[in-house]
UniProtKB/TrEMBL annotation:
Protein name: Acetohydroxy-acid reductoisomerase
Species: Exidia glandulosa HHB12029
Annotated KARI N-terminal Rossmann domain residues: 4-187
Any one GO MF annotation of this record: ketol-acid reductoisomerase activity
PANTHER family xrefs: KETOL-ACID REDUCTOISOMERASE, MITOCHONDRIAL
Pathway given in the UniProt record: Amino-acid biosynthesis; L-isoleucine biosynthesis; L-isoleucine from 2-oxobutanoate: step 2/4; Amino-acid biosynthesis; L-valine biosynthesis; L-valine from pyruvate: step 2/4
Cited InterPro entries: 6-PGluconate_DH-like_C_sf, KARI, KARI_C, KARI_N, NAD(P)-bd_dom_sf
Region span, Disordered: 321-342
Pfam families: KARI_C, KARI_N
Membership in a protein family: Belongs to the ketol-acid reductoisomerase family.
GO biological process, one term: L-valine biosynthetic process
Annotated Basic and acidic residues bias: 328-342
Keywords, in A-Z order: Amino-acid biosynthesis, Branched-chain amino acid biosynthesis, Oxidoreductase
Length: 342
């Protein structure tokens, strides 16, 4: 696989956005950050419109002097660019029912995650552009790194080139929100979705399970709940390890550990046979993520996620995790130590 292309400010022409009307559907995490960055990059305020129902998000946008429209169709019908920055699970309904019917035939639809595009859940006419500009950061960092003129990591791709001009527009938008300053990595909705859902459905579930099993084995060997909670995560040692991994390298951060620790970790990892885990990972990636099985399962339970109590499958999963040996032990430890718990 060749190295990915990386686009910088010089690859992007902000003049392409001159006179364009830009609508942001959603003013949450990403919407608030990206709209402010775009305006600070020189897009006139009267060319930006925020679509949001009348609530605290709309109030926030108004307090920042944005023009807010509560009727989504009205907000987007004249837009040349529509940023779809609402939660992934509500995007198809909002876009297909409220935005698509009056969308300009040449407008560019911008998503910040590949999910709905990869699984073809958005009904975008063939004449429109669909581009992905997907920051790898939470919204507050998208804003603060822009303010520090540092930029932030971001994936960019063209998913549908209706106008024949989608890439220059995607790059101009990436520059306007501050992404090309640090370098926007050429990617695709498929790649972004594969990596995102793989991490969520393969990597992190295994990490949760590893922690639960480690907790069980050490508890059985006589370690106290208090000692285990602190040793395993409450001391923030794992958080520090990952921070150093990002800053200095996944392997090279080991140099900060004691020699006993370095030898134990590297020797232990080299002795492990990854065959079973690799087979399991391949199974999740190909037979759950890329083939759309998870997407179908999630779509089927989506409405139930709005319900209260045990009827909500997410609440039921939380209950199961909280009642597990490790979950119950941590609850007790946190209560005893008067630590916060959500
Ligand atoms: P948020 O949860 O912050 O979105 C909140 C916004 O969505 C509000 O404006 C809210 O308005 C609106 N919204 C919520 N429900 C509805 C609805 N049913 N109808 C209309 N509007 C609704 O989302 P994020 O900013 O976190 O995510 C936006 C996109 O960015 C997603 O595609 C996500 O994957 C992607 N992304 C997110 C990152 C992050 O840091 N969270 C990082 C990178 C990408 P109201 O409640 O008033 O309706």
């Amino acid at each position: 696989m060749p190295a990915a292309k990386i686009y910088y400010d010089n690859d992007a022409d902000l003049a392409l956005l001159k006179d364009k009307t830009i609508a942001f559907v959603g003013f949450g995490n990403q919407g608030a950050a990206q709209a402010q960055n775009l305006r600070d990059s020189g897009i006139p305020n009267d060319k930006i419109i925020i679509a949001n129902k009348e609530d605290h998000y709309a109030e926030d946008a108004k307090s920042k002097q944005f023009h807010v429209e509560h009727d989504f169709g009205k907000a987007t019908k004249d837009a040349d660019v529509v940023f779809l920055l609402i939660p992934d699970q509500v995007q198809p309904r909002v876009f297909n029912d409220l935005v698509a019917p009056t969308l300009k035939s040449t407008a560019a639809v911008v998503v910040a995650s590949g999910y709905n595009v990869f699984y073809k859940l958005l009904n975008v006419p063939a004449s429109n552009d669909v581009v992905m500009v997907a920051p790898r950061m939470i919204g507050s960092s998208v804003r603060s790194l822009y303010e520090k003129q540092q930029g932030f990591p971001c994936f960019v791709s063209v998913e549908q080139d209706g106008t024949g001009n989608a890439l220059p527009i995607a790059l101009a938008l990436s520059r306007a929100i501050g992404a090309t300053k640090a370098g926007a990595i050429a990617s695709s909705a498929r790649e972004e979705t594969a990596m995102d859902l793989f991490a969520e459905q393969a990597l992190w579930p295994n990490i949760i399970k590893l922690f639960q099993e480690a907790f069980h084995v050490l508890k059985e060997a006589g370690c106290s709940d208090e000692a285990l909670c602190y040793e395993m995560w409450m001391s923030k040692e794992p958080a520090e390890i990952f921070e150093r991994a990002a800053e200095e390298g996944f392997i090279w951060q080991l140099k900060h550990h004691s020699t006993v620790s370095q030898y134990g970790q590297l020797k232990g990892a080299s002795k492990l046979d990854g065959t079973a885990i690799r087979a399991h990972f391949n199974d999740i990636l190909h037979n759950q993520v890329l083939n759309g099985k998870f997407c179908k399962e999630f779509t089927a339970i989506e409405d139930a996620l709005e319900k209260e109590g045990d009827e909500n499958p997410l609440n039921a999963l939380y209950k199961e995790a909280e009642e597990s040996e490790m979950g119950a032990a941590e609850k007790r430890v946190r209560e005893n130590l008067k630590l916060t718990q959500h």
